[in-house]
Structure formats: C-alpha cells, structure tokens
Write a structure and sequence with these properties.
Chain A is an alpha/beta fold and about 375 residues long. Chain A is built from 17 helices and twelve strands. In chain A, helix 10 links the parallel strand 5 and strand 6.
C-alpha cells in the first residue's frame, strides 16, 4: 500500500471515474492514496468494492477528459482541492456525498469561512435582484461568505452584492470551470475568480447538462450554514436547493412578496413548510446567532443629495409618474425636475420604466 | 329566588353595571335571573360576591344610559341577545369573558354559523383592500360568515366582499349601535344590518373610546374559527386581534407582501410567530378542514370582454402605463385603446392612477 502523497492529477483521474461516495471511502481506506487505488490490480480492487466498481476503477479513463484536465491544471491559478487538502470545505465532509475533488479558482481561505447561500429565480424582477444584492452586501459586511450558483437573476445579484460588501463570495457551477455558463456572467465570473472563488465538482470540459444542476444545488447549500431564497417560482431549482438545505440540517430563509407574484409563490411555499420568513439581513444574522457589525447591519441606502431630489422623492410616493406630473406636484421647473431625476437615477434611487415614467426603488 | 324569565331591559340594566364575568356567573347562579339579582338586598348580594361588587349591583344605574337603551330597544329591529338566549354565540361561551348581553341588529341565525374574521389596516392600499374583498367573497361563497370590525380600509372591504358572496357578514363595533363609527361606513352599516348583523357589547350611547376597542377586537376573534390579517403595520390593532385569536385557540392566518411595505410588516411578524401564510381562500378552507364549494372556490375574476381588452392587458403587463405607450405597444388607434381602457376599468380589471396612467389590478 503506497504512502506517497498523490498528485492533483491522480485525484482528478480518480474523480473522473465518478465512483459512488461509499466506494471511494472504502478504496482510499484500503489503499491509502488515489495513486495506490489507480495502480491496484482488478483482484485487489475486487476484494474491497463490488466487482462492477472494481471494473470501473481498473478501466482507463477517457483520454480526452484527462487531457482537458491536464491543460486546465497547467494554469497555476487553477487548483484541485481534494479530500486530503486542509482547505477542503469541512462543511461538506459530513454530508455523505462530499465530492472527491473540487476544481477551484480563487481564494481557498474562503472555503472554510462561515457562509450563507442566496439563490432564486433566473427571471428575477428588478426589485428582487435589488433585494438579493442588498441582502448579500449586508451579510457580506457582517462577515459571511455568500454562496450562489452564478446563474443570471438572483444568483448574479447575490454575487455582486457580496463583492460590494466587506466579505466575499463563492460561485458553485454545474459545468467545467473552463466553460462558465451562462456566458452573460463571464465578466462576473472573472471578478469572482479574482476576489472570491469559483467551484465545480465537474472536470474541465463538462458542458451544461440538466442532470448536473441538482448536484450543483446540493453543493451550494452544503457549503453554507443556511440558504436564503429570494424570488422563486413554484417549480424552481431554488426550491430543490432549499430542500437539500433542510436535509443537510441547514437553516432555510425566504423573503415573502405579493400573493399575486408568481415569483413569490415558491418562497411562500417554503415559509409554509417551515422556512424562516426574513425581511432584513439582521433577521438572518439573528437566527444564525451572529451579532450585527458595529452600528447594526450597515445600511448604505443612498439618500437624496439636494432639496430638489428630496422633494421629487416625496412627490413620487409609490406611484409610477411622468415628468409632467412631477412638475405639477413639486412646482419646480421641468429643467430642475429633469436634473434631479438624473441625479436620483445615478444614485440608484429610482428607475425609468416604459412610457417615460419613473418609479422609486426601495433598497434595504 | 325568582324563576320568572327576565326582560331584555333587565339584562340591559345588569349589563350596564359592567360587572366582572365571574361575579355575573356567581350572581345568576345564586339568584337565577337578572330581575332577581337586581331586586336582591345588599346583604343577600354580599353573601354571594365581594362587598364592593355587591355595592355596585345595589346602586341604581345611570338613568341617562338606561333611557338611551330603552329608546333603542323600542325599535323592533333592535335586540338584546343575552346569556339565556339560544341565539347567543356559543363560540363566546367558553372564553371566560362572554359579554352578558349583546346589542344586536340583523339576522340572529348568523351568530352560530361557522365564521372567519378578516381584519387589517385602516390605511389599506388599493391592492390590500381588493385582496380582503376577494378573500371575503370566496370564503363567504364557501359558507363562512365573515366577521370584522366595521373600520375603514380592510374591515370595510371584508364586509363588502362577504355581502357580495353567498354567505354573510357580522360587524362587531366598539361603540353603541346608535353611534356607528366611523361615519364613512354608515351606508355599509345599514346594508349589514339588513343582510348580516351588527353587534356591540356596549350599550346605546357609548361613544368611541380607545379603551373599548381591544374588547371589540377580542369579540371579533372570539366569534370566529380563525382570523385572517390582510395588511397590518407593526403596531396595529389587528395584531392584538390576532393575539387574542391565538389565546382563544383560533387559527391565525396572514397574507404576506413586499418586504418594503410597512403594511406587510405586521403580517410578516405574525407569520414568524406561527400564523399560517395564506395566498388564497382555498388555503384557509384547507386549514379549517372545509371543502371548497363545487368546482373549487368560486373565482369571479372578470376577464377581458374583447380582443382589444385582452391585447391591452397584455400590453400593460406589470407596468404603470399611459395611453400613448399603449397605442405604441398595441398598434391600436387611441380611440380603440380608450374604449378598451374604459371597459376594463368598468369591469374592475385596471385602475387609473395619478399622471394619466393605468395599472392592472390583480384579483384572486
């Protein structure tokens, strides 16, 4: 039985065989290292695991996959973090399905920090995305690493918010790390690689496959102390992630919304099934037993910079309003109204909506 | 000890003394009827209840109050429903504070039908009022009597919805029934008196007093199997009603909303504390173990009557939109758009909002 440390490539090779978790545990217990497992005879393997699995181990792996992995590993920024690695996320080890090796780019010290997952709809509303971003920023400021799935919509907003905060973010993807999907998030993925971490249990070259996303979701919740769902339809992958979280003993949080919004129905279902209803980041920190940072959860809500902007926000109220109406309501000239609208839009306090109208945005 | 049945006036007179519940039970157990209690000597009374209470019973009641009650009772539509009355609401009897006498106008058979209370903010949003009305109508259709407090906002909408449905409504007020408060609901109160029931535990002439409203709230929840809260601020009488409901072993239901709406915070607090989150009337019927009526809870949502109306609703989406934008989006002439807008407004499918804009209304 070999006692030499195994190379990343050996971990990757064993990982490519996609063996069941229990078989991997048995093999490594018996042979000590991936190299030893890979060089064992069929008979030696058959003494430890069922014959069908012994056959899979003894078979050579797909050379194309192995070549892609070798190429990917040649970049010094690219790492394999396997079971023998002290940076391997301890949160995953007790789950019974910790991937043998994680393909990783980024700051490995983030893998063992307290984390919270934020997930939700790809078709998020503008307000839902703002909410996810605000939750992520406040929780990042409070010291939590925000885990999400790098999808468009809520996921992307959560990563963005986390990067804006004092903490950071981990993106768990369902493809090879050489194939960031969706393409729209490529620029975000680069920033996450530089300031946070990108994780996949799938080897380089793995394309987007529907069957891999549930495993990605299981990893997202597994890495975190809890999962916050912001906007999810009734049939939504986010609900699967929340179910995993429950099974993994993680907290499940959901933010509610209008009873008429299809994107709130998933969150409402979760709350009915026992998820904690949350309105603020403080609600989550309280449940996790974490104190809010000095002065409470940081609120960086922009405030009107001028009297004209303040008057305009008052005049807007909760309505969708055009410039003419604002001129009437405020008694200001249209030039002043236009200038104030621009200032408020730049500071993210309102948004233009179709029809030349303006709507106030609420930020937590 | 007298065995003669007591007159409504005797019940009213004893009621005017505002004695503690336990003392009333002891006195009626000892003397048999209100007349007998009222004609007992101070010494006889003192043998049954503490001396201070005996003194209050022996004192003459305020003549003005008694005269107001007599005048009110002279109207044959006005009734006193006291503990001896078979129509007295059985739901109240086990609570330990059932009022000795209820002042009542309306259909007494409603007092012992399965009921659900719907309460909420006086400052309801247009959508909140629509929601309360839709819940009330659907639950009324399903055979529940809707109980509320005849306040403006959610209460009024709940009574209206209940009257539209196949069932009916009970309004519990915190003033004398000769002083319906607020005045804005006088016309609604008349319709409730004709088709439902108006209830007060306070004698005629009682003006609105802050101290009486919590007792009104306790009666609202006491009469019902459960309480639905639709829109309530954090410091809200509706939350008191919900707390009473919990203490009385009634179900508490709350409908959620935006995390940015102050009028949802009370509902969210209730849900966190264990209230059932509900999106539809069916959710409530399910919890109460009541089947929905044939074909599910009746949905009477208006639908677009013409192709132009349907196209317009599509073009509106979730935005607040002006006529010009609708002309652009639909390619219809402004005359056709205007006609369709009018049709949709008349059927309650959209509402004009400030600035010449239109917004779609969601009805459950």
């Amino acid at each position: 039985m070999s006692v030499a440390a195994s190379t990343p490539e050996a971990w990757a090779t064993l990982s490519l065989k996609a063996l069941p978790h229990d078989a991997l545990v048995a093999l490594l217990r018996a042979f000590g290292t991936p190299d030893a497992v890979l060089s064992a005879t069929r008979a030696e393997l058959g003494a430890v695991v069922p014959d069908a699995i012994a056959a899979r181990v003894a078979e050579p792996v797909d050379e194309t996959s192995l070549a892609l992995t070798r190429t990917w590993l040649a970049d010094p920024a690219h790492e394999i973090i396997a079971w023998d690695n002290t940076d391997y996320p301890r949160a995953l080890l007790d789950l019974g399905y910790a991937p043998l090796a994680l393909f990783f780019v980024g700051r490995r010290e983030l893998l063992n920090r307290p984390a919270l997952a934020i997930v939700g709809s790809r078709n998020a509303t503008a307000q839902g995305a703002l909410d996810a971003q605000a939750f992520a920023k406040a929780l990042s400021d409070a010291g939590l690493t925000i885990v999400s799935g790098l999808a468009v919509g809520i996921d992307a907003a959560a990563h963005e918010g986390a990067l804006e905060g004092l903490g950071s973010t981990l993106a768990v993807v369902g493809t090879g790390l050489d194939r960031v999907y969706p393409a729209r998030n490529r620029e975000l993925a680069h920033r996450i690689a530089a300031h946070g971490g990108l994780i996949s249990e799938f080897p380089p070259g793995t394309p987007p496959k529907a069957m891999n996303f549930p495993r990605r979701n299981r990893l997202i919740s597994g890495l975190a102390r809890g999962v916050l769902v912001v906007e999810a339809a009734l049939l939504s992958g986010s609900l699967v992630t929340a179910r995993h979280a429950g099974e993994q003993g993680r907290e499940v949080f959901a933010s509610p919304g209008s009873i008429h919004s299809p994107l709130s129905k998933g969150c409402h279902k979760l709350i009915r099934e026992g998820a904690k209803l949350v309105e603020t980041a403080q609600d989550i920190l309280g449940e996790l037993g974490m104190a809010a940072p000095e002065g409470g959860v940081a609120k960086h809500a922009a405030s009107p910079a001028t009297d004209a902007e303040a008057a305009l926000l008052d005049a807007l109220g909760g309505d969708c309003v055009g410039v003419d109406t604002l001129v009437t309501r405020t008694g200001m000239t249209s030039a002043i109204v236009m200038a104030a609208l621009t200032g408020l839009e730049l500071s993210g306090q309102l948004a233009a909506i179709p029809g030349g109208l303006w709507q106030r945005l609420h930020r937590t």
